[in-house]
Amino acid sequence: MRHGGIVSQQSSAAYPSTSPENSPTDSEAAHIPRANKHAFHSQEDTSRLSAPNFKMPIPENDPRIRLLSTAYVVYNHADLSSARTFLLDFGLTIASEVPGQEIHFKGYGTEPFVYTARQSPTPNSFFSGAAYAVESRAELSRAIAIVPGCRSSSIEKLDAPGGGEVVTLTDPAGHTVYLVHGQTKIQNPTRPPCTTTHAPTNYEFAGQKPRQGVFQRFEPGPAPVHRWGHYGVTYPPGMYQDMYDWYTTYLALAPSDVVYKDGKPITCFFHIDRGLEFADHHAFFFKPAKEGMQPDVAHAAFETHDFDVQQLGHDWLKGKGYEVCWGVGRVSHLAVLMGGNKWLTGGAACARQSGIRLLVRF
Fold first, then answer.
1. For the segment 44-63, what is each residue's pLDDT rounded down to a tens digit?
2. Residues of 150-170 as b/e, b for ≥16 C-beta within 10 angstroms?
3. What's the CA gap between 8 and 33, in Å, rounded?
4. CB–CB of 134/66 below 8 Å?
5. CB distance 323 to 335 below 8 Å
6. Which of 115, 140, 202, 223 is the most buried (most CB within 10 A)?
7. 342-345 and 333-337 as β-strands: parallel, antiparallel, unpaired?
8. pTM > 0.90: yes or no
């Protein structure tokens, strides 16, 4: 079992997974260490984790679709013009645009785009899915052949900045999942000045303190988005196990944390399983839909440079008249509710089911 990059000899049978008999006490939130249920490595392997360029992905014979990273999300907006204004204030920039129809937004990372905004064909805004980059074109072909709910009969061209190819899947709750390969990355992207010109405020090593004769001068403005980090969706009653089985059987996702209520698992956070390679704590999660509500997106989270930049973005949005739902806090999240000009920071829960969230990246 792996936790925080440490690998032990614990077997997959010891992982409590979703079995109620192995769950913690009623109403207790259980934080389960990362686990690769398909490949476990001996303790001797852990010494290699300290190598700067350590690479040991999942085994070649692993049956799951081999994921590399999160790629982009797609939202349909009832008012695309207002969404455009907000997303620019949020810190994204435009990669390409078909006025009144579709806008591709990018961050300052290497991804050609991270957010697609489309004019909704209905009076309502809605989520249209999220994409993962895969290791090779062969993984797209395998997905067509083995994944239940694959809507693509063949590999399709990705008509978006960076090009590439895509296949489209549907999970058991009806959410769309895209798998992409062959996108052309942005070479040597330019970093925003606010990520390079101010001194660090979080000192961790001897000799960094005190800061003498150096002043912080921040320029007001949006918090530049680096990249898209993760997202979450909701599921209808009784579908936890269906969702868990689909995502862990067919995609290279592994649980990082499981939350229990009344002895039963209800929420699960997943990281992209790269074997012994380091990965973000979660790229995806699902949780139960609120009573009387249909399955929907919970939020999509984006990364920015640090806490200072996030606070600048918070102040910028507040100054623009958007409504804050949650103040900046140690959790360091900033989110906007898709149904209106609102955002939240600092918490892990959205006031509505549709939103985007900006996540501090240290």
1. 343 444 444 556 678 889 99
2. bebeebeebebbbebbbbbbb
3. 11
4. yes
5. no
6. 223
7. antiparallel
8. no
